[in-house]
Amino acid sequence: MSARSNTLNASALSLADTDAENGGAQFKDLDRQIDLAALWTQMLSESMICADPLVKGLLWTGVKSHGCFAEAMAALIGRKLGDRAVAADSLTELVHECYAATPETLRAAAADIHAIRERDPACPDYVTPFLFFKGFHAVQSYRVANWLWLAGRRHLSLHLQSRASELFGVDIHPAARLGRRILLDHGTGIVIGETSIVEDDVSILQNVTLGGTGKHAGDRHPKIRRGVLIGAGAKILGNIELGEGAKIGAGSIVLESVPPYTTVVGNPARKVGTRHLGLPSLTMDQTLPPIDYII
Predict the structure, then answer these.
(1) What angle, rounded to 10 degrees, do the helices at 88-101 and 134-150 form?
(2) Residues 6 or more apart from 148 whose CB is under 8 A from it?
(3) Domain end position, chosen among 139, 169, 199
(4) Res 1 pLDDT > 80
(5) 83, 85, 106, 151: which sits with the fewest CB atoms below 10 Å from its CB?
(6) HEC assignment per residue over the chain
(7) Which domain does 192 fall in, by range?
(8) Residue 56's domain is classified under what CATH number?
(9) What does the pLDDT read at residue 7?
(10) Do 94 and 45 share a structural domain?
(11) Which residues are paired to 270 by β-bridges?
(12) Mean pLDDT of the 88-94 span
């Protein structure tokens, strides 16, 4: 873990190995569960620091009035997505039901917020993304909508998708498959289509589209493998694959599959430089290797 995570270090998290079969040695420290109690204790501590009287009420409502991370998450989603059609209290109870039925959904939320803290230099603590980052809010709303979709409650699932799109400017189809430790940086304008797959440890910047190429049904959206970084404004279209650790330059139009640990840029996107090392989604390094072609 990076030095930035010293406020919630590995020992405090009581990390437990999980999913050992996924990935190689480079993923060993990522495939671990976060101690929810330790995370919640840290968030409570952070919420005590703010002295602004206008924010104290927000911190009380969002964090300090709750007994655990699950309660706060459920209240957050209910409060954000609730409207006249489906009241906030009803949605809060629904999220509690989701977390009770699928504890991995709550663990994924904790993993997401920890990933944001690790990767985003604008994120000073855990309370900040929890209360203020709409990319985080959009992903957690999707996770509940996906649970509803898989349970056959399609109309309510689509209602949550619609509300999240209205509120956050992020449109994630509830049938899409998203992994853990997902960062939607800034969030605005991100679209993830119905048959998209986004694996663990992916970072996506604003105005990215994971879309289809026409009206045909079936498996028609991109597959984003582990550790991929997608720069702002990139469009990934069709049933193509971005290989593990790939980097997509800002504004690129990607119409063909990208090999693992490869950088592509342009319209249409093309390979630049040689294969890189490491996972760009973790470093958020958007620099490009020297261009080896001239237009």
Answers:
(1) 70
(2) 98, 154, 156, 157, 160, 174
(3) 169
(4) no
(5) 85
(6) CCHHHHHHCHHHHCCEECCCCCCCHHHCCCCEECCHHHHHHHHHHHHCCCCCHHHHHHHHHHHHCCCCHHHHHHHHHHHHHCCCCCCHHHHHHHHHHHHHHCHHHHHHHHHHHHHHHHHCCCCCCCHHHHHHCHHHHHHHHHHHHHHHHHCCCHHHHHHHHHHHHHHHCCEECCCCEECCCCEECCCCCCEECCCCEECCCCEECCCCEEECCCCCCCCCCCEECCCCEECCCCEEECCCEECCCCEECCCCEECCCECCCCEEECCCCEEECCCCCCCHHHHCCCCCCCCCCCC
(7) 176-295
(8) 1.10.3130.10
(9) 45
(10) yes
(11) 265
(12) 98
Query: How many CA within 13 A on the CB side of residue 141?
Result: 32
What percent of the chain has pLDDT above 90?
79
Question: Over the chain, what is the mean pLDDT?
Answer: 90
Q: Reply yes or no on whether the pLDDT at 10 is more than 80.
A: no
Find the CATH number of the domain harbouring 292: 2.160.10.10
Q: What's the pLDDT band for 2 if we cut at 50, 70, 90?
A: very low
Residue with tokens 């209205």: 166
Last residue of a domain, one of 169, 200, 227: 169
- Asked if the model's pLDDT at residue 6 lies above 80, the reply is no
Number of domains in the chain: 2
Q: Give this prediction's pTM.
A: 0.88
The answer on pLDDT for 278 being more than 60 is yes
Are residue 73 and residue 36 in the same domain, yes or no?
Answer: yes
- Segment 111-138, tens digit of pLDDT: 999 999 999 999 999 999 999 999 999 9
* pLDDT over 70 (residue 270): yes
